[in-house]
Specification:
The structure is a single chain. The protein starts with a helix and ends in a 13-residue tail after the last strand. α4 packs antiparallel against α5, α4 (72-103) runs antiparallel to α10 and α5 packs antiparallel against α12. It contains 15 helices and two strands. It has 350 residues and is mainly alpha-helical. Helix content is 63%, strand content 2%. It has a single domain (46-349), classed as Ribonucleotide Reductase, subunit A (Orthogonal Bundle). Strands 1-2 form a two-stranded antiparallel ribbon. A hairpin with a 3-residue loop joins β1 and β2.
Length: 350
């Protein structure tokens, strides 16, 4: 597309806007806005802004360095989660910048994707901050995906789920290609951000609720809030593409997506077994398995697919951990109140 084509004034009405394959509206012209939900997610992301240095980690340093305070199983669980998240956040950012943004032709959705990419950069910076603060070996943390089979299998599965959109010759033209794009969006938003991250959230916030490594817990709390918003946006994105292209929503394609999510659940449970071989402070693999099945059902329903497990939520307190509206004294000089934007957190998200 030439520059003259991009800037010509008459490019169609708001009704003609589409998430993908839109050739009648200007992708650089955000007004008038058709998908008001995308704009709202952007504003909520701005309201939730944070950076890792705002979290005091003095107690974490003391606990990490105090001999005997953390047993070997607790240290293992913490390191495994840092190892997975440190590489997974980079993978997420790369997918956004290199693939998803390219194929979304709607400007208000693109605006949110840019905001999300910034938040993924903040998450990546969080793990740098943790490593630096606790004086962890970065090679140990960032190479865990090479050494720990359950982490490697999750990462390889996630990479495989987004092969289509990363192909430079890929196009979203035609029924099968739109299905491939939606397949990859499910892999990116529903599986990567909506399932693969949540066992780790539960583990780290379990420790935080017991005043263990509270700084890392608080940072995971902020990341969870961001990821819940990413998941909600991604689900609305997927559902809207399906609404605009109903011919792709065949029984065979729906079963393909269900099978992908069920495989992701298996991998997440295997990862939990690696992280918690003997359990920690009452937290065990059985509880994590129940939780992963519970959230998988929620993710399936969110994109209009049938539940597969029927498990109940063993961690109802996770929704309470999202209450971040509290005064914080950052850098010992500034009082700030975290905002939650306009998003009402629903227990089913956790």
């Amino acid at each position: 597309m030439s520059w003259n084509e991009l800037i010509r004034p008459e490019r169609g009405s708001v009704e003609e806007k589409r998430i993908i394959n839109c050739e009648v509206t200007d992708p650089n012209k955000i007004l008038p806005i058709k998908y008001k939900w995308a704009r709202e997610y952007y504003k909520m992301g701005v309201a939730n802004n944070w950076v890792p240095e705002e979290v005091n980690m003095q107690r974490d340093v003391e606990q990490w360095k105090t001999p005997g305070f953390l047993d070997s199983d607790t240290r293992r669980m913490i390191l495994y989660n840092l190892g997975f998240f440190s590489t997974a956040e980079s993978l997420t950012a790369n997918n956004l910048a290199l693939a998803v943004y390219k194929h979304i032709t709607n400007p208000e959705c693109r605006q949110y994707i840019l905001r999300q990419a910034y938040e993924e950069a903040v998450h990546t910076d969080t793990f740098i901050y943790i490593c630096d603060t606790l004086n962890l070996d970065p090679d140990q943390i960032y190479n865990m995906y090479l050494k720990i089979p359950s982490i490697r299998e999750k990462d390889e599965f996630a990479v495989g789920l987004t092969e289509a959109v990363l192909d430079p010759s890929f196009t979203t033209k035609g029924v099968r290609n739109i299905q491939r794009f939606v397949h990859d969006l499910v892999g990116f938003y529903v599986i990567m951000e909506g399932i693969f991250f949540y066992a780790g959230f539960a583990m780290m916030l379990w420790l935080m609720n017991r005043n263990i490594m509270p700084g890392i817990g608080e940072q995971f709390q902020f990341i969870l809030r961001d990821e819940t918003l990413h998941l909600a946006f991604g689900s609305d994105l997927i559902n809207t593409i399906v609404d605009e292209n109903p011919e792709i929503w065949t029984d065979a394609f729906k079963q393909e997506l269900v099978d992908l999510i069920k495989k992701a659940v298996e991998l997440e449970i295997a990862y939990a077994e690696d992280c918690l071989p003997r359990g920690i402070l009452g937290l065990n693999v059985s509880l994590i398995k129940q939780y992963v099945e519970y959230i998988a059902d929620r993710r399936l329903q969110r994109i209009r697919l049938p539940k597969q497990y029927g498990s109940s939520n063993p961690f109802p307190w996770l929704s309470e951990s999202m209450d971040l509206r509290k005064e914080k004294n950052f850098f010992e000089t500034r009082v700030t109140e975290y905002k939650t934007g306009a998003l009402k957190w629903d227990d089913e998200d956790f």
